[in-house]
Design brief:
By secondary structure, the chain is of the alpha+beta class. The chain contains seven helices and three strands; from the N terminus they run αααααββααβ. The chain folds into two domains: 10-67; 77-170, no CATH class. It has a three-stranded antiparallel sheet with strand order 2-1-3. This is Helix-turn-helix domain-containing protein.
C-alpha cells in the first residue's frame, strides 16, 4: 500500500536481509539459525526453494516487518496532513437525524478525510484492525466531510456505513 512490494524470491529476500545485517553472512546465518554456507547459496541463487523452517523465517515476518519502514512511516505521516487522504466508497448509507427524510441507499462517494480521521485509520490499520472495524471511522469521516461539509450543514447528522462493495484510500 505504501511502498514497492517486498521481495518474493528467496534470493532477493536473503539479499535484502543481508543489507540489514550490513553484509555479514555469519550474522544473518545466526539470526536465521542456518549455516553461513546456506546463506551464501541463497545469495548466489543456487538454492531457490527455502527449507520449511527457513521459509518461515525469510518469507515470514522478518522480511515483511523490515521492508521499508521509514518509507511507510513517511507515507502515513503525509496522509495524516490536511487534505492529503481521499476515500472512494461505494456502500449503503443510512442516516439518523432529527427531521431527516433521507432513506438509506447505495451511494458512490469520493471525498477528503480529515487529518484526525486519517491518523486514526492508519493507526488502527497498522495495529491489524479488520476492514469491518474501520467502517465506523470511515463513516464518521464521510459524514464530516461530505454530508455535513465540515460542520456547515446539518450538524447532528450521523451516517451509517453498511454493505460496502468498494473501499479505496488515496494519498
Amino acid at each position: 500500500m505504501f511502498t514497492r512490494p517486498a521481495p518474493k524470491s528467496a534470493k532477493a529476500q536473503v539479499k535484502f536481509l543481508l543489507t540489514r545485517a550490513k553484509g555479514v553472512t555469519q550474522a544473518l546465518a545466526e539470526r536465521l539459525s542456518v549455516s553461513r554456507r546456506t546463506v551464501e547459496r541463497y545469495r548466489a541463487g543456487t538454492l531457490t526453494t527455502p527449507q520449511k523452517r527457513l521459509r518461515a523465517a525469510v518469507v515470514g515476518e522478518k522480511t515483511e516487518s523490515e521492508w521499508q519502514p521509514e518509507v511507510r512511516a513517511q507515507a502515513r505521516h503525509q496522509a495524516a496532513t490536511p487534505s492529503d487522504m481521499m476515500v472512494d466508497v461505494t456502500a449503503y448509507f443510512g442516516f439518523t437525524c432529527t427531521g431527516s427524510s433521507d432513506d438509506g441507499r447505495e451511494r458512490s462517494i469520493t471525498t477528503a478525510i480529515s487529518p484526525t480521521c486519517a491518523k486514526q485509520l492508519l493507526e488502527l490499520q497498522e495495529a491489524g484492525a479488520t476492514e469491518e472495524e474501520l467502517h465506523p471511522i470511515v463513516a464518521e469521516a464521510i459524514t464530516e466531510s461530505y454530508f455535513t461539509q465540515w460542520g456547515t450543514r446539518t450538524v447532528d447528522l450521523c451516517a451509517d456505513l453498511t454493505h460496502v462493495s468498494e473501499n479505496e484510500f488515496r494519498f
